[in-house]
Design the sequence.
């Protein structure tokens, strides 16, 4: 029998050293590229069969990165299982716009060891741009619109010349609330979860049904403007993507005018457009702010305006509701994450594509941008996200996402290339100052205090999976959004404190001289943790959500405006309006409510008999079930972007 030769001690040491070799950013980027590829359909796919839920085949759009609609069930192991298993694929412009932005940004700092080493980034982004052009608004008079819808628009069955935006994997099989409850109840039973979540499903599904048939929005549209500006700046490095954008988009001026046309103007006179009417949930947290503005002389010098979510006025709703194109509750709202995203889209165009954007940056748009940035600074400086999260962040449940959005404009206006735009439009200087002060002060403190520090590991997490209990009823923290939150936290701190310098081939990042030592440490240790991320890591996120979360429906807040779409006013009484009326009646606050009337309705909302009032709620995301969108591809793109930038960071 032949003898077995044992490895030498030297060989064992070498093997051990190889196995213990530290993870690198390049390794993690390669793994995240694999996640990106797995989440990108290469061909269109229709929902089939139409009567089944779940179907044998979900609808998917080629070139659009996958996201999934989940429901934020909380509780025991069964509720946690329902939260993760009930995942409905959704094709939307939103996810792909941000993935494309993140990949494009990473190119600037890629020295050949980043995603470009594993992925043809230009061709990949070009394919996404081509796919995104199918999400342009088809109800405008010109095909060259730059308005973007969340979902692709399809012809209305009753009027083929008009188009509505609906989620095919929800609207096709569900159709009505009754059908939705039957289908989803059967799905939960099939998964063995029928006793865990059905109690909340009726309300949750009713929320979903209210968004069938939404108009284009400023969020997706601004994200598209931001992507276009990035591609224009990097057109030498991303020629295919830039050319696809140039040939597909147009009418930037009309879209920029829409921002002003649909803006919330609390002090405006009553008119058909209803620009002084806003969602009660928005007015609830903005009341102290607009009331304070009402007492200043500045507000009498020019109109006060704030960026809204939907590209629609009350007059537009009355015209388009019959064609299933209406904002939920037939009233606009202000979500500060949407405001921050829109601000970045507009400012990006002014800085990186001035010939196209600058001619339309008139006094009205400048004032809107200034007022909106002041509102953002107010929210950051007073940490309103922590106090009133579910209504301040109507559509973006993650607080980290909001701060990341703000930091992008902060970084852009602090860059060298922004100086020409600032000199041309001095209003940008004031915006840069206010946002930089807020982000380097209260925002930085928030990130430092919320960091999870364990020896040489630093991470951040938000709410997803952190309101569960184990089989013994003991609270557990699953930190399902830890990779997503950590990536965005690092991206935010880099945006606030690192500046870019162009090199001969790539751009490098350098810490500002006033960067706190703790910030440098947090970024370094968090990046080291991100280098170990792989496809088995928790890559979930709650990047987007429905606006209604539990009892945060408009009628549970102060209301002084209830009007049917035919122009008939409705008295504000308990149960005067329900969720089923969300597209047929405008629910809002008009003008400025007197303090006494406001306080009375905070304690006793006129439109609801509920004993739960705004004054008694916590406004935390984990207080209720609600639909949210999660995308592993988006988390992967964030990790790629961050690790590429960290590799370009000079010590």
Sequence:
């Amino acid at each position: 029998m032949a003898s077995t030769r044992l490895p030498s001690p030297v060989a064992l040491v070498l093997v051990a050293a190889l196995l213990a070799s530290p993870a690198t950013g390049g390794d993690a980027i390669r793994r995240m590229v694999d996640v990106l590829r797995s989440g990108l359909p290469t061909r269109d796919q229709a929902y089939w069969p139409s009567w089944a839920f779940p179907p044998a085949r979900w609808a998917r759009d080629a070139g659009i990165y996958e996201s999934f609609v989940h429901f934020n069930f909380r509780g025991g192991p069964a509720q946690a299982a329902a939260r993760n298993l009930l995942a409905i694929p959704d094709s939307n412009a939103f996810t792909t716009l941000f993935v494309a932005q993140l990949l494009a940004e990473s190119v600037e700092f890629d020295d050949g060891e980043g995603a470009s080493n594993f992925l043809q980034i230009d061709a990949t982004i070009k394919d996404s741009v081509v796919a995104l052009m199918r999400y342009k608004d088809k109800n405008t008079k010109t095909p060259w619109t730059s308005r973007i819808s969340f979902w692709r628009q399809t012809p209305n069955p009753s009027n083929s010349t008009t188009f509505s935006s609906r989620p095919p994997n929800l609207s096709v099989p569900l159709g009505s609330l009754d059908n939705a409850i039957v289908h989803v109840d059967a799905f939960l039973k099939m998964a063995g979860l029928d006793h865990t979540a059905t109690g909340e499903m009726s309300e949750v599904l009713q929320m979903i049904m209210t968004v069938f048939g939404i108009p284009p929005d400023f969020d997706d549209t601004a994200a598209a403007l931001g992507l276009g500006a990035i591609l224009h700046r990097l057109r030498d490095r991303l020629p295919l993507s830039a050319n696809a954008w140039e040939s597909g988009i147009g009418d930037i001026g009309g879209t920029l005018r829409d921002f002003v046309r649909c803006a919330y103007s609390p002090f405006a006179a009553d008119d058909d457009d209803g620009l002084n009417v806003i969602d009660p949930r928005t007015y609830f947290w903005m009341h102290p702010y607009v009331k304070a503005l009402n007492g200043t002389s500045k507000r009498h010098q020019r109109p006060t305006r704030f960026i809204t979510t939907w590209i629609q006025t009350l007059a537009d709703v009355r015209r388009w509701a019959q064609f299933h194109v209406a904002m939920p509750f037939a009233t606009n709202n202000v979500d500060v994450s949407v405001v921050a995203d829109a601000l970045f889209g507009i400012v990006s165009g002014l800085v990186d594509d001035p010939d196209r954007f600058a001619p339309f940056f008139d006094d009205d748009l400048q004032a809107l941008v200034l007022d909106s940035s002041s509102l953002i600074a107010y929210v950051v400086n007073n940490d309103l996200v922590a106090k009133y999260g579910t209504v301040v962040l109507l559509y973006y449940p993650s607080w980290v996402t909001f701060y990341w959005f703000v930091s992008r404009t902060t970084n852009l206006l602090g860059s060298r290339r922004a100086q020409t735009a600032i000199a041309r439009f001095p209003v940008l200087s004031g915006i840069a100052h206010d946002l930089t002060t807020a982000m380097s002060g209260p925002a930085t403190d928030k990130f430092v205090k919320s960091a999870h520090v364990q020896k040489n590991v630093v991470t951040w997490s938000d709410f997803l999976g952190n309101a569960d209990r184990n089989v013994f009823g003991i609270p557990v923290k699953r930190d399902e959004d830890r990779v997503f939150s950590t990536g965005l936290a690092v991206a935010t701190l880099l945006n606030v404190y690192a500046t870019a310098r162009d090199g001969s081939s790539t751009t490098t990042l350098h810490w500002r001289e006033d960067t706190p030592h703790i910030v440098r440490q947090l970024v370094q240790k968090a990046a080291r943790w991100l280098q170990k991320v792989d496809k088995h890591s928790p890559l979930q996120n709650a990047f987007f959500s429905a606006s209604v979360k539990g009892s945060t429906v408009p009628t549970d807040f102060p209301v002084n405006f209830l009007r049917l779409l035919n122009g008939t006013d409705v008295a504000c009484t308990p149960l005067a309006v329900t969720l089923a009326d969300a597209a047929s009646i405008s629910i809002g606050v008009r003008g400025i409510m007197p303090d006494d009337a406001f306080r009375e309705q905070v304690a006793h909302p006129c439109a609801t008999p509920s004993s739960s009032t705004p004054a008694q709620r916590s406004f935390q995301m984990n207080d209720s079930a609600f639909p949210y969108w999660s995308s592993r591809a988006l988390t992967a793109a964030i990790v790629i972007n961050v690790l590429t930038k960290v590799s370009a960071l000079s010590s």
About this structure: Residues 427-450 form the longest helix (24 residues). The first strand starts at residue 67 and ends at 71. Residues 318 and 565 are 5 Å apart (CA to CA). Confidence is low (pLDDT under 50) at residues 1-21.
